UniProtKB/TrEMBL annotation:
Its main location: membrane. GO terms for molecular function: monoatomic ion channel activity. It is found in: Endomembrane system. Keywords: Ion channel, Ion transport, Ligand-gated ion channel, Membrane, Transmembrane, Transmembrane helix, Transport. It comes from Deinandra increscens subsp. villosa. It is a multi-pass membrane protein. The lineage of its organism: Eukaryota, Viridiplantae, Streptophyta, Embryophyta, Tracheophyta. It comes from the Eukaryota. This is Cyclic nucleotide-binding domain-containing protein.
Length: 667
């Protein structure tokens, strides 16, 4: 039988709430927030999602430039840029709110961390000075709307599209660094406060997959912008070679804002720049390297969704293969980008596999631990050469315990919780089950029921397992929740006597222990069991041990009430068996007495009516003498039984009314 120990009765004051106590008339902008409170915890989760959105949105600016295939020029997709600007502006607003909240969030004084959590500093001036010295500059740099300003104000003022591409890439890269510096400490704070980023293993695995996909998105968007830059570099080199021609090449011709300039159409008809810089014709003097698919597949002039998913696929493929699929040229920028993709893919892929393995292994850790224990149990049984039937019983019990508990050690979990929370948990788990027991349903004292709930021990039994044998000490009362038990007795080994009953959900056994616990003069020795209790199938029950039952009996005098005593006698199968035997014995004595009286009456009537023969008078006297002797013996036996019972009662110590009466003499 397996036990899972439940905590004892203890009441402690309810702890204060985690959030700071504020006056109800304080405004929200004047409050000081607890860094470990519920509000800050939820806000950190929300801001983490906002930061991930920011890391996703910023590379989308790389997809704004595009090449007009028919016009052979570069332009910006301002409709798409407007959508990104609105999205990015909302993120920046939340970032500024985060800065304000950090100005109103308390911190733990470093010199107070000697014991416990430490003392929180709630002075707004000290909080502001500390934040200005530590992370304010990084948070402000990450929240500034620099890409929006450059897209709508700076880029339209520059002369060429090449300068626009350079400006976008420079601003995004500059602001991407402080955004990463914001998200990593935020991730650390969430882990420090709550223990984990994701509450479930699958959510944690999905979180790291999302980070991997985000890295693929960044690589793909950067590859697209570098491809546009590579195309412009080719145009610029070939344009510089056309000098002594009728219509010379000008760099402004590659900007779609100058397609209507005079002389551009004539230049398009005579120039060799476009044919020499076409990736589809494999130019001899210029190599596109890893950027060739952007032009051969028409990515630079495709729609947004076609462009985005192709770039995402390229980044995902490059990271997953550590850049082995990239065919670079001799360009230094291209080679460095390929090296960064290779190293970044290696590091990010290792982080993904490691963290996902950690999260996914946590889902099967209990199962693997159970498999190891089961294997050790099998090896131990073979080493000790246990009989096959005993091995089967051990296997059934181990299997049943796994199905009932799933390998969770409830005792360790409950032991780590405060006592008041443990009491509430036990009330939630056990009170409804305790009230299903008819004996406990008669109790109207909630405090008594709470005390019983907190001292209950979960008991698991498999088919054929003996909970207690007749004559063994009783060390617990068992209350059946699921399954059936067989309770039998031979009345101390008396030949020809056997009584058996079935205990179903709601019944209990081991009631001798309650009599022992309610007896003030009871010694340390436990009472002996008068019955043998055996599990007929898998049984789940709650057990109340001897020391716990005595503690409850001493603390709560309501157990001594007559109402509970009568309810105990009524629902106790042991008392019911004794009552049935007592009634049966009384009925048999009554039948014997009636039979003797009937025989005496019939024999007296026979001798009274017999007037023939000389010996009639002598026979009648003899019959009366026999009836007198029979009645004397019956009276003597009856008096002997009464005197014996009175002597036993007089010599016994005073017992409570719940003490089991003497068994009737069946001899």
């Amino acid at each position: 039988m397996s036990y899972i120990r439940l905590p004892s009765t203890t009441i402690i004051p309810k702890p204060p709430p985690t959030n700071f106590p504020h006056h109800s008339n304080d405004s929200w902008w004047t409050q000081i927030f607890d860094p470990g409170g519920q509000f800050i915890t939820r806000w950190n989760y929300m801001f983490l999602i906002t930061c991930l959105n920011a890391l996703f949105v910023d590379p989308l600016y790389f997809l704004v430039p595009e090449i007009a295939r028919r016009k052979y020029c570069m332009r910006s997709d301002y409709g798409f840029a407007a959508i990104i600007t609105v999205w990015r502006s909302l993120i920046d607003v939340i970032s500024f709110i985060h800065i304000f909240i950090k100005f109103r969030t308390a911190y733990v004084a470093p010199n107070s961390r000697v014991f416990g959590r430490g003392e929180l500093v709630m002075d707004p001036r000290k909080i502001a000075l500390r934040y200005l010295r530590t992370g304010f500059a990084v948070d402000l740099a990450a929240a500034l709307p620099l890409p929006q300003l450059f897209i709508w104000f700076v880029i339209p003022a520059v002369s060429t599209a090449a300068h626009a591409n350079h400006s976008i890439s420079l601003i995004i890269i500059i602001q991407y660094i402080p955004r990463l510096c914001v998200i990593f400490p935020l991730n650390h704070r969430i882990t420090k406060t709550t223990g984990v980023i994701a509450k479930t293993a699958w959510a944690g695995a999905a979180y790291y997959i999302m980070l991997y996909m985000l890295a693929s998105h960044v690589i793909g968007a950067s590859w697209y912008l570098l491809a546009i830059e590579r195309q412009y570099s080719c145009w610029k080199e070939e344009c510089a070679k056309e000098k002594n021609v009728t219509y010379p090449c000008h760099r402004v011709y590659f900007d779609c804002d100058h397609v209507d300039d005079p002389g551009r159409d004539e230049w398009l008809q005579e120039t060799q720049v476009l044919s020499n810089c076409s990736a589809e014709t494999s130019p001899v003097n210029f190599t596109f390297g890893m950027y060739a698919p952007a032009f051969t597949e028409g990515v630079t002039s495709a729609t947004f969704f076609e462009k985005y998913f192709f770039c995402f696929w390229f980044g995902l493929k490059s990271l997953s293969s550590y850049g082995q699929n990239l065919e670079t040229s001799t360009s230094i920028e291209e080679t460095l980008f390929g090296c960064s993709v290779c190293l970044g893919g290696l590091v990010i892929f290792c982080l993904l596999i490691g963290n996902m393995q950690t999260y996914l292994q946590s889902t099967t850790a209990r199962l693997e631990e159970w498999r190891v224990k089961r294997r050790d149990t099998e090896e131990w049984m073979r080493h000790r050469q246990l009989p096959p039937d005993l091995q089967d019983k051990i296997r059934r019990f181990v299997q049943y315990k796994w199905l009932a508990t799933r390998g969770v050690d409830e005792e360790n979990i409950l032991r780590a919780l405060p006592l008041d929370i443990r009491r509430q948990i036990q009330r939630h788990l056990c009170l409804a089950l305790v009230r299903r027991v008819p004996f406990f349903s008669q109790m109207d004292d909630d405090q008594l029921l709470d005390a019983i709930c907190e001292h209950l021990v979960q008991s698991l039994s498999t088919k054929g397992q003996h909970l207690v044998r007749e004559g063994d000490p009783v060390n617990e009362m068992t209350f059946v929740i699921r399954g059936q038990l067989e309770s039998s007795t031979t009345n101390g080994g008396r030949s020809g006597f056997f009584n058996s009953i079935t205990l179903k959900p709601g019944d209990f056994c081991g009631e001798e222990l309650l009599t022992w616990a309610l007896t003030p003069e009871s010694n340390v020795n436990l009472p002996s069991s008068t019955r043998t209790v055996k599990a007929l199938n898998e049984v789940e029950a709650f057990a109340l041990r001897a020391e716990d039952l005595r503690f409850v009996a001493k603390q709560f005098k309501r157990l001594h009430s007559k109402k509970l005593q009568h309810a105990f006698r009524y629902y106790s199968h042991q008392w019911r068996t004794w009552g049935a035997c007592y009634i049966q014995a009384a009925w048999r004595r009554h039948k014997r007495k009636k039979l003797a009286e009937e025989l005496a009456r019939q024999e007296g009537l026979y001798y009274y009516n017999d007037d023939d023969g000389d010996g009639g008078e002598n026979d009648q006297n003899a019959q009366h003498l026999g009836a007198t002797i029979l009645a004397s013996r019956f009276a003597a036996n009856t008096r002997k039984g009464i005197n014996h019972k009175e002597g036993v009662v007089a010599s016994a110590p005073p017992m409570p009314k719940l003490f089991k009466p003497n068994e009737p003499d069946f001899s």
